[in-house]
Every structure is written in C-alpha cells, then in structure tokens.
Amino acid sequence: MFAVTVTFSLKAGCAEKFMPLMYENARASLESEVGCLQFDVATDSARPEEVFLYEVYSDAAAFDAHLGATHFQAFDAATADMIAATDIKTYRSVVQ
Description:
Blueprint: E1 2-10, H1 15-32, E2 36-44, E3 47-57, H2 60-68, H3 70-79, E4 83-92
Antiparallel strand pairs: 1-3, 1-4, 2-3
Helix pairs in contact: 1-3
C-alpha cells in the first residue's frame, strides 16, 4: 500500500472554480486507474482556501501512473494558476 496526502493552499477566491475540477480528477482516478484504491477530498469551512487529499494506491508505481494519466495532466494544467502552495507527503505500508 502506498498512501499520499496532499494539502493545497488555494489563492483567494479560487475554491469555487477549483473544487469541481478536483472532484472530477478524484472520480476519474477511482474509475480509470486500477491501482487507485481510495481518493478522498476534504475541506473545512473555517479554511475555505485549503483542500486536503488522502489517496491510497496499490504501490508507488500506481501513483506514478496517476501522475502520468491524461485526466491528472488536464487537472494539473487547469488548476496551476489557482494554487498558492502544495504540500505532498507519501507513505509506504510497513505492516503486511
């Protein structure tokens, strides 16, 4: 198992445009990527410009495939100007 957490800090006023694109990326990942096992999108109304992702892949190669997927590349290009900062962390399962 390979887990990924992502925290996006959006530019002011961009959440309304960003979120539908984020939901579509999550949906497409779950539906079309065999190695994508979970893709959660979370927000908090107290921090409307912050979006947290929790993603689980079968292995690191599945995550690499996600990064190369057409739908991810389209999401990345469409949202690049909306994001002020991104914090990505990865984790490998140590218990089998």
